[in-house]
Amino acid sequence: MDRKAPSDTLVIGIDFGTTFSGAAAAYSANPEAPDEIAVIKTWPGGNNITSDKVPSEVTYGQGSSAATPDTHRLRLDGHDDRRLRFTQFPLNGGQSSFPGDTFAFDAFNTKLDVAQLADTTDPADAGHTRWGFQIRPDEQRLRCLKLFLDPHQPIPSYVSIEDMKNQLTASGKNVGTAVTEYLRLLFTHTKEILARRYGEQFIATTKHQVVLTVPAVWSDTAKDATLKAAEAAGMGDDIKLISEPEAAAVYTLQVIQPSHLTIGHNFVVVDAGGGTVDLITYGIKQLTPLRLEEMVPGSGGCCGAALLNERFRQFVRSKLGDANFSDICQTKPRSWLMALKYFEDYVKRNFNPSEQAVFNIPFPGVSDSRESGIEQGFMRMTSADVGSLFRPIIEDIVGLIEGQLGELHAMGHKAKGLILVGGFGQSECLLKCLRNRFSGGEQGLEVMQPVNAWTAVVRGAVLRRLEGTELVLHRKARRHYGVKCNTAFVAGIHDVGRKVWDDLEKCWHATNEMRWYIAKGDTVCSTQPILFPFYRCFALGASRTVTDELIICDDNFAPSVYSSAPGSATRVVCKMVVNLQSVPKHLWKELTNSSGERYDRLDYKVGMQIESGGLRFDCRVDGVVYGKATATFR
């Protein structure tokens, strides 16, 4: 169970996002109000312009520029106008996943390779690595790295897997290493800014506690990969993970007062970011202090604000024509960059569907054309044009919300509110559309948008750690969890192909029998572990260290037999290594088999606790904990 941060701790929240990342901090001895938490707003390369977040992008200079012969055709949003010719393949457990690919370098491996890390003490190496606002608009960069940490989540259409692979290969880094280096740059800068506020001596002598946010829909493996990257980035060895919707709820329910939400009410958190939209439904169990219950498992989709940039690009291409658009991008790249930046900074943020406005998009140097809508260096966009870009994306978000509400309704419950946060969550258009769809009629939802919607997650992460105690009392299991075991073989019931001889117990066993201890959709207590019972037999003098595998299944119905065959519903999520050496001798049973051979047997349990940001394991015998079970995720 989490404890409240000590009174002399600097709590640092890190929100590593798909398109933008943020950082915030508070001193536990003098915690600020939710809206006064120190959010990092100045960034390298930002030209003294403040921003609540920094682009989640990194480039390796000369190394990355050699990735493809046409690197300088990449645009401000990272798109290459050749991208639509690429074929997207599903990632497979960190493999490069390209059919027929014989290239030895595993670009999509999410595990850190220390040998690939840049040496920040070497000026030449450090000089080639730039990140965030330091990257020039026309320069190639690694972007949307976060999406590649979870191979089981879909990659949006605007991200080219081929281009990502080429850049990683040219830089000699895999996804895990690139994420680690980005997080190290972000964290180092955060500490530098905090040193200006609190003083270098304070930062050097005060313990810091990092809270890192992760999507609610991520797999346990992806959460572990994020944690490992953060540890390697120098954030410490006691990093806490919290789901992004949970962090948003912590912040929003404290700053939006008064609201009509009270004990017994349910609300949907919609974290609409640049790359993805993450949702989860909570019920309020207690207000002071705030205590929640997860009512519906998290869901999400790749329908963030970055899709608007892609749709704007398609709109401009359709107006100018393929050949003309490609020619402008190659011969007048700054013209396209200026148009895209104006759309990003002004049109996308200020579009209001209830107003009949006309937007003039700057296209300097482009010839006037009535057919293309270009006049005096500007392209005219009506409210209907802009609305056509927003509509399919908002429809996807509405569908995700209705999915949450439908599951809640099937349980006999209704939602009273909807909390909208994230970068895209600031959108006036999205807010109005959701209010029009859900605030009236039978739904009657109160759609709330906090003032600091873009930083709600990172502020909430800091608040969550300052409070310490578990916020969400119960969670919904997103998948089945269990273990495979051997049972006494019974002819006619067990497949003869799974029949094996146990030479220690002198009997026949059936292998790969599944024991499911958590079913998908189960309500799981956040403060009490689920216990997996095991027994092990050891020859006298044999090692007391054992390895057990945690099996998961994402299907609605879990099979009774484990299979590792491709396409199987069951898969190993992690290996749990348990050292039983510290278990007292009197708890072991000394037995003798039918051949007169003596052996030891121990009955023990592995406790698994589902927390906001991941899984935690321990080993216990007769209710006493005898240490942690070390988990190695695949």
From TrEMBL:
Keywords: ATP-binding, Nucleotide-binding. It comes from the Eukaryota. SUPFAM superfamilies: Actin-like ATPase domain (SSF53067). Pfam families: HSP70 (PF00012). GO terms for molecular function: ATP binding; ATP-dependent protein folding chaperone. This is Actin-like ATPase domain-containing protein. The lineage of its organism: Eukaryota, Fungi, Dikarya, Ascomycota, Pezizomycotina.
